[in-house]
Amino acid sequence: MIRRLVNNVLQNPTETIVYSNPFLKKDTQHFGWLTNVAPCFPVPSNNIKIISEPKQFYEELLELCKSATQRITLASLYLGTGELEKQLVKALSTNKQFQNNKLIINVLLDYTRGSRDEVNSRTMLCPLLSQNPKNCTISLYHTPALRGLLKKYMPNRWNELIGLQHMKLYIFDDTLIISGANLSNDYFTNRQDRYFLIKDKKLTDFYCRLINKVQSFSLKIDKNNKVSYNNNCPYEGNKKEFVNKARDLIEDYLETTTINQNMCTTMQGCDTWIFPTIQMGQLLINQDSIITDKILAEAPHNSKLNIATGYFNLTNQYMNTLINNSQGNCEILMAHPKANGFLGAKGAAGGIPYAYSLIAHKFKRQYEYKGQQNRIKLLEYLKEGWTYHGKGLWYYAPQSNYPCMTIIGSPNFGDRSVTKDLETQLVIVTENEKLQMEMHRECRNLYEKGLPADTQRKVPFWVNAFVVFFRSYF
């Protein structure tokens, strides 16, 4: 199983070398171990485009919805219900190849978030099923942790705390856009995130098949918005049996792909290597969190880590690693309370921005106690009229002006990403200086809007108790 391979490599790295290190330069050879723990996709750097603005992200999506000829596969938390989202659905429905039964549309969303309110993601997408049911599938992942009395009595919105489908993958033929952004108005206008557009058939094939695997143990709807079940549905049956079956399905797929892909880690014309990582904590799949922790831990002296998260709630493991194991300088960018999407929300959700400030305050006390205040810095993203949702990591090797590695995807490096939600991201290692410069420019554009974090901000008293009891849920 892939978990055995990952654990063996991390615990006994000198005894488990399976695949050759594809990297040629000193700075990138630092990451040679990745070929033994994740599938490796070599690509030319000019097949990667970094998108910087929400509007540009939306325009790319819209154009690709119109122009795709064979397949469109979308995985997101939810689809919004505004005018921009309606234009996306219209672009799908009017795609000529879809109308001619030559294009397949495949959508994976979260069941609880996608079913919120009377007008929701499901009602937005049902017309596609009415138009062409043979060439369209709409699946809804339902966490196995939400069942029985908990499911029966937990109110809508609150039930989203238990576990979600959180992967953000937008595939059009052989083009992938990976992001942390959902398919919703704010993410198309004034909610800053990160977005990479990558053209590679093998990588898109990998993610299409992964989504198909998740769909095999998810629900689906028909043209009348009626939910149908299958034998693997988490609603009924033994939870442990479901988890084991789903875990084995995903792990077997990861293991097979790793073996097949990593026999050809060097390809002519390829100067960039992409490693997909998966985190599905409720299914006992922890590949991404293990790899992320090792990257943090092995950052050498005089290297630099830039870490971004929309929600500052690092796991205790990540905090401990950054403080006690990592030797690299580290700047962490998080949302200022004014740039937090929960600001002004009703009820307990309105306290979440203050909860992140409180967690940041406690983290700062920890690293200052260990004398690490010159090595670790906290910044808060603030741009008038915008919210912040960007996440990921950039690694700068010692004495290097540009990053040779970045991580991009859906995880926020927090407890919920590690233990509750379905997540994926890409570790991208490049030896191409032009792409490195573009990665640096993306990083700087975000950090330029970062202010020194105010960790002494006054926090409502009740938020302290909220963090103690509910930290792993937000």
UniProtKB/TrEMBL annotation:
It is found in: Mitochondrion. It comes from the Eukaryota. GO terms for cellular component: mitochondrion. It holds the Pfam family PLDc_2. Gene3D superfamilies: Endonuclease Chain A. Its EC number is 2.7.8.5. Keywords: ATP-binding, Lipid biosynthesis, Lipid metabolism, Mitochondrion, Nucleotide-binding, Phospholipid biosynthesis, Phospholipid metabolism, Repeat, Transferase. It is an enzyme of class 2 (transferase). Residues 161-187 form the PLD phosphodiesterase domain. InterPro entries: PGS1 (IPR016270), PLD-like_dom (IPR025202), PLipase_D/transphosphatidylase (IPR001736). It catalyses: a CDP-1,2-diacyl-sn-glycerol + sn-glycerol 3-phosphate = a 1,2-diacyl-sn-glycero-3-phospho-(1'-sn-glycero-3'-phosphate) + CMP + H(+). Belongs to the CDP-alcohol phosphatidyltransferase class-II family. This is CDP-diacylglycerol--glycerol-3-phosphate 3-phosphatidyltransferase. It comes from Ceutorhynchus assimilis (cabbage seed weevil). The lineage of its organism: Eukaryota, Metazoa, Ecdysozoa, Arthropoda, Hexapoda.
